[in-house]
Amino acid sequence: MADTPKEGKLTRFLDFTQLIDMASECVGGKVLFATDDFFAPAENLIKSSSPSFKEHEYTQFGKWMDGWETRRKRIPGHDWCVIQLGVQGIIRGIDVDISYFSGSYAPRMSIQAANLSEERVPDIPPRGVKTGAAATPEEFGVISELKSDSWEYLVPMSELKPGDPDSGHNYFLVNSQQRWTHVRLNIFPGVGKPRSMADGWETARRLDRPPVLENDENGLLQVPGCEWAVFRLAHPGVITQIEIDTKYFKGNSPDSCKVDGCILTTQEEEDMIRQKWDLPAHKWKPLLPVTKLSPNQNHLLDSLTLELQDVITHARITITPDGGISRLRLKGYPSSICLLRPLREKPMLRFSLGFRANL
């Protein structure tokens, strides 16, 4: 297993962008494996044309995207794919293009590479149409013969910057004279374990609390005030499980919390922002009743959602009376209800990759 690389830095624009794209489909580049292709297949990574965006086009799995788009990671590990270069040679630089994914791109990535002779490459069946699917155990078994997790790093784990919506190039210089035949792209999700209280949400002490606190019959503090925050989901969907983590908040976690959801169009959201979220009470659907919280603990709670048709686009967490929370995760199933929304927001995760090198 290769040593885990340290986080790298972006390079300045270099003239390698004028060289041959060794991974492009037009010179014979081929995707051998990808862990997941739920929203859009990894083959889009090696298209010879520039990425495009079609505002009103959808597939049965969600918004059509001209790139590799995996489902949100909810299991250990990270997503990765293996590409066989169409032209073997020395890689001078790498262009990681996240155009049109300025709102939900992979925040970090790394690149590994290998120089493999034909006899070292197993017989890998054609991938076929992969949209809406994840790699099978059989596919994992075959690709494991390449031992790609131990390949040499050309780019260590590095942050990606969105740039303009239609021009999200991230350029990385490769300092290697080795010839390469295959590359592995690793993308890393943005959610992770909290590192400290600073890596969470903490409100100030409320000054309207009574001088002597008392509990009700359910053990909840009887206090007049609360704090709240509203979030727009990355994708409309049905929430089935709620995770509330108070890690590191040992003496300043909230006494309790509740979570509600609602469904809003883009225009309604804009109206609510202007009105400081003075939303009619009937618009909110309860996802989690008032629930007692413990300090420095991760709480996994079932949502109150009873039917799969109970779709939401926004969520509100309310904490009583004040305090801090490290993480809030709303887990569930995406829904095609997004077709009802005039999508002018930033699209989902897109990842386009170009390898440009001399021969």
Can you describe this structure?
With 359 residues, the protein is mainly β. The chain has two domains: 15-192 and 345-357, Jelly Rolls, CATH 2.60.120.260; 197-325, Galactose-binding domain-like (Jelly Rolls). 4% of the residues lie in helices and 35% in strands. The chain has two helices and 19 strands. It has helices at 137-143, 266-274; strands spanning 20-21, 30-34, 58-59, 62-63, 79-90, 93-97, 108-114, 152-159, 169-173, 179-188, 201-202, 227-245, 256-262, 285-292, 298-302, 312-320, 324-325, 327-334, 352-357. Strands 12, 13, 14, 15, 16 and 18 form a six-stranded antiparallel sheet that branches. The two termini are 29 Å apart.
| Terminal CA distance | 29 Å
Low-confidence stretches: 3-13, 338-354
**CATH architecture grouping of the largest domain:** Sandwich
According to DSSP, the number of beta strands is: 19
Please indicate the count of domains: 2
